[in-house]
Design goal:
InterPro entries: ATPase_NBD (IPR043129), Carb_kinase_FGGY (IPR000577), Carb_kinase_FGGY_CS (IPR018483), FGGY_C (IPR018485), FGGY_N (IPR018484), Glycerol_kin (IPR005999). By secondary structure, the chain is an alpha/beta fold. Helix 3 crosses helix 4.
Length: about 500
Amino acid sequence: MKYILGIDEGTTGVKVMIFDKSVNIIAQAYSEFTQHFPQSGWVEHDANEIWEVSLKMVAEALKNGHIKPEEIEAIGITNQRETTVFWDKKTGQPVCRAIVWQDRRTLDICEALEAKDGAGIVDRTGMIIVPNDAATKIRWLLDNDPKVKKGVDEGELLYGTIDTWLVWKLTGGRVHVTDYSNASVTLLQNARTLAYDDQILNELQIPREILPELRTSSEVYGMTDPTVFFGAEVAIAGILGDQQAAAFGQGCLEKGMAKNTYGTGSFMVMNTGSKYVPPSDGIFSPVLWSAKGRTDYGLEGMADVSGAVIQWLRDGLQMINDTKEAEELALQVKDSLGVYFVPAFVGLGAPYYDSYARGTIVGISRGTTKHHIARAALESMAFQVKDAFHVMEKKSGFKLTKLRADGGGAKSDFLLQFQADILGIPVERPLITETTTLGAVYAAGLAVGYWDSFEEINEFWKIEKRFEPQINEEKRQELCKFWNQAVERSAGWLK
C-alpha cells in the first residue's frame, strides 16, 4: 500500500496528514511553533524551528499510522504565503528571522511604490501593494539587515517563501523552487507571463539570482535526501499556497465556484477559470494552480484577523478559556444587542486595505455582556467575508450561488449559519475540513499518477452539512448597514 503525505505549514503551526487512494485520513500530527512580536505590527518566525517542527510532525504522523517512509508515494506541501526567509546556501542556516505575511513594517515601501506606479504594478503582478507582499519584505531586509545585504552582495544567500525553504531542506539543498501559486502573491511575478516581472525587480533592486525557479503546482521537483527523510527517497511533487490549496481541496475547480477558509485570518477565493481579472478594490488576482496542463486564475480577498479575534478573547481579554466557549456564549443570547466588533487589530483587509484602521467595538450599552461581545466577534468573521465576495461578484460577473467553508472556524455551526444568513446563499461544510492539506496532497498525487485527473479528485468531495439562509432581505440589509457604519468608525484611526 502506498500513501500521499501532506505537509501544511500554517501561520501558527504545522499539520502533517497521510491519505490513501480513497482519500481516507490514515494518520496525522500537529504542533504549534513560536510567534515572535518584536515591535508593534511586526511578526516573525524562526525558519529553523519551522523546519524542525515539520520534520518532527512527519515522524509522528508516520508513527501514528504505522507507516514506513518508503510507503509514501509522494509529498505535497502547502504553506503560509509571502512569509520571507533568507538562508546561507552553503550552511543551510537562516541569517535572520522570517518576516511573516501579517507583518506591517514595509508600509512606507508600499506607499512609495503606490505613488510611483501603483496601477501598473497591480495590473502586471495581479497583486495589490500591501505590506503582506514578499517583494517589499526582501527590500526592507536589504535596507535594514546588514547580514542580509552583505550575504546577497557576496552571492552567499538564497531567498524563498516557506514552500521553497521546506523543499530546499527536504532535498538536502539540491532544489531551489517555488510554484506559480505562491509566486503570484509575492508581487514578484508577472500575472500574464508567469515569469518574474523585470520592472518590479528593477524598481526594488532585487537580484534575480536569489530567487527560486518558478514551476507548476503539480510536478516532481526532486527527491527527499535519505539522510533527512528517515532513510527514504520520496518524490516531492506538489506545492500550493495555502489558500489556493484550500480551494483545490474544496473542489472549486470550475469558474464561479468559491470557498472561504476561516483560519487565523479569513481567505475568500473565487475561481475565474483561465481568465485573468486584474485586481481592484482591495481584491487581488492570484494564480490558483497550474496542473495537468491547465492554469486557473482566481480572485481573492483577505481579512487579516478572523479566528484570531476568538484567540484574543481567550488570550488578550481572558474572557473565555478555550475557543469553543465563544460559540457557547453566543448561543445564549438571541442577537448581539446592537454590538458590532470590527477586528482591525493590524488594519482592515479586503475590500478596504486600510493599514491605519484599528479594532473597534461599538454599540455597547449597560445591557452588554460577554455573551454579546462573543457573538459580535463571531459575527465579524462572517461580515468580513460578505464584504469581499460582494466586490468579487461585481468584478467577475459571476453570481455567487453557494459558498464552501473550511478551516478551524468552519467547525462552528453558529458561524456558518450566520454566514449563510448574511450572504443570502447556502454555505456548505465538507466532510473533510482540512482541505488545505488535501489540496497539496491532490497536487502531489496527480503529479505521480496516484490519481489521474481533476474529474477523479472532484468525486471525493463530500458534504457534511449545508446551512440555508434563515433571515429575510430586510433584516440582512439592516445588519449590514450597521456593520458598514462600524467599519467606517474604525477606518484611518492611526492617521
